[in-house]
Amino acid sequence: MNIICSPAGIMDPAFPGQGVLDMAGSGFENTLLDLNMYCSPGELEDVGKPKVAAWKKKEAAEPEWKKKVPISEEPARLSREVKPFLEKCAGAKIEVSVAIAPCLKWSTKREDLEVLLTRLAQESIKVCGQAGIPYLIVQPLFASVARGAEWEKNRAYFLGLAESAGENGVRLLLQNQCRDVNGHLSRGICAAPGEAADWIDRLNRELGEERFGFCMDVGVYNLCGQNMREAAVTLGSRVKAVILRDCNGRDKSAMLPFTCVNGGRSVTDWLGLIRGLREIGFDGELILHFEDTACAFSPLLRPELMRLAKATAEYFRWQIGIENFLKKYKSVVLFGAGRMCRNYMKCYGEKYPPLYTCDNNQALWGTEVCGLTVKDPESLKGLPEDCAILICNIFYREIEKQLREMGVGNPIDYFNDEYMPFFDME
User: What share of the chain is helix, strand, coil (3-state, %, to 5)?
Assistant: First the structure.
């Protein structure tokens, strides 16, 4: 599972060096090429509109690098504009794994940009081919599409992109959409998981190959009030990428996961998301998008924020792929005989049975929990060297310190039951 850091809010596309260094310094090895940073939804909204005199006056005073012809007027320049970013990434040994094609605002009323969007998508495919980027997220057409004609319009659009995508070795990912109608957010094209799955299957069948996949945008599902576990399970192996971003469920934003809270609890249904991705065995591109959080922090604090972001992404990778973590060890012993131990046994005890558990509570020594004998922590000194100890207690670091001070040299890891498939309720 690749952890990918979106550069939005972190990097200035005209001067990408510092943003790339911040990503590399925080341990990120993969990033995203967001082509909206070079041709924004706002720019597309203004295509063909006359510039007012005040804008022209301001334009005359701007530096030369800001006077370039917009990408929307010259899409072929896209590959040249992204070159500095790609070169900086290569120098920092950061791989660019996914790209996003330029897209429209959710609230757009423009219905005359289909030709331009097609041209931009084609240029985006070429950029991916030249840079060796395997995935391109492409927004379905919606602004010029009559109700009931969504599939036929997008069928022609995506199949028209498929030949170039095949020649460049690029896989196209559709993405769930939101619509902003006079300030009211509602479900857009591909928001319904069943519809999205059907579109992808039909496109791949017509091509005779798997050229299309799906990108789940967690923020959009949250805004639309959708069940994320159900979405993940319905889409299944079609999901090749997931965009992790938090929001308050009302406003479009990209916050660091777990930072939008109400009453001390996350607004986003992370439990449903993690359970769903775990259930389908997701092992694709995990994209961390926290533009608004990054913009709110001083550039001086940003390196510290980036380290927290990396740790957050690693936490998601660990939770989603928890069985890969459990498979690491030939044998395990648990530390803790409480609720977390019972949850481990209920969810994984049969598949990954521990030798026993232990606990600091002397009253429990010699008793049984879920069929496991509870022993004195001193028993851990006699474990085989390759047997791991999984701490099933929220006082992880304190217990690890205790065991190390006892002279226990076995691998010690933490088990966490916040996102189990189900919980022991006894």
Answer: 45, 20, 40
